[in-house]
Write a structure and sequence with these properties.
mainly alpha; about 80% helix
Length: about 170
């Protein structure tokens, strides 16, 4: 079960990281500090933080527009796969074969979504100057560090709760 939980965490991370810049208010922010989340607010913030020119903004907007329909379909596929896996986990949590099969569907959907997001990111990276790419890498690392600290803090709190609960 530990391997399944680890695999599920990887799949979930893939899904979140691959989530493109639209229709995302119900999704959490990308743990690595990506800008392609949060209903597009991340991409808007990125354009401000990197000081994109008007032409660069138009290019990024065009890339996002062109990728929007495919991204929407892939996100819907991912949502359905996750719903299916949750249904299996709720109805047959001890059925390892069923859980593995459902997790494989999620994994495949996450893979397709990640590939799509990677292609979109590569196109956007092609619009940036070298200086903007360096700045973007710095911003992403800062966000990643902040997420890691927050994640570790939550893990410590859970560990403390477990220890306290088991002592009583």
């Amino acid at each position: 079960m530990k391997h399944f939980a680890a695999a599920l965490a990887v799949v979930a991370a893939l899904a979140v990281s691959a989530y493109a810049a639209q229709d995302a208010p119900q999704m959490p922010p990308h743990p690595g500090g990506g800008f392609m989340h949060d209903g597009g607010r991340g991409i808007i913030k990125m354009s401000e933080e990197l000081g994109l020119s008007a032409e660069q903004k138009r290019s990024v907007a065009q890339i996002l527009k062109e990728s929007r329909e495919q991204g929407k379909a892939l996100r819907e596929s991912m949502r359905k796969a996750m719903d299916g896996m949750h249904a299996v986990m709720d109805s047959a949590p001890g059925d390892e074969t069923a859980v593995r099969k459902a997790a494989q569907v999620v994994s495949k959907a996450g893979e397709e979504l990640a590939v799509h997001a990677g292609k979109v990111k590569a196109r956007i990276d092609g619009v940036l100057t070298q200086e903007q790419k360096v700045k973007l890498a710095q911003l992403k690392q800062e966000r990643k560090d902040k997420f890691k600290d927050s994640f570790q803090d939550k893990g410590r709190k859970l560990d403390e709760w477990i220890d306290q609960t088991l002592k009583s």
